[in-house]
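Working notes for the structural subgroup meeting. M.R. asked for a predicted model of this chain before we commit to crystallization trials. I am recording the input and output together here so anyone reviewing the notebook later can reproduce the run.

Input as submitted:
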Amino acid sequence: MSSLLTPQRRRGFEILDDPGIDDRVRARSLADVARANTMFGGSRAVQSELESALEDTSAHSLSLLDVGTGIGDIPARVKETWRARGRAITAFGIDLSPSLLREARAGGIVPICADALALPIASKSVDIVICSQTLHHFEAGDAIAVLRELDRVARVRVIVSDIRRSWLAAAGIWLASYPLGFHPVSRHDGVVSVLRGFTPDELSQLVQRATRQTPTARRHIGFRTTASWIPGALAA
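Returned structure, recorded in token form:
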């Protein structure tokens, strides 16, 4: 899809995708991502979808898995928010980077070093599975494999949140990165991430191809889009 405001989706290359990048640079850049999540809507988009998901269950204790957790900022915020509402959430975070998982552990997340393409989690063993700003890192075939894994392990709800592709969003993150003091890697990767992002229709179609479920796809402030669905075995 392309228009005056929405460019064609392009792959690009994010520096943080290089497994050989220095751990200090990775941690610094992911800290910038966490700030951007707070300021520009990444955390709010996930929390908004969780509001709906948690209305569907009266359980006071739930498990949550964050795939591609980074430093665990989003599940940590989820735990804090829902603890104040009387819900106990045990949060697990999956990432390939041991150094990032150490930071996630410090934030109260149970770390699991694993690949999103082959989650070491039993089928239908986690209540809610989220995947935020991770899917755009994968080629189409691998993205479908990731979505199938999310659907496989979730019991109650799957929530995928990503960046909504837009020239305005690309220009905005570039310009905002200077006064916010973002690392140059964060600035570069932020723009590439936007141009790798999805429209709501694209994300919905990808979920349907992967799982045969029709998700609820929404736009959120801060150029975010989400797709949320009941996992396959429970959809009927």
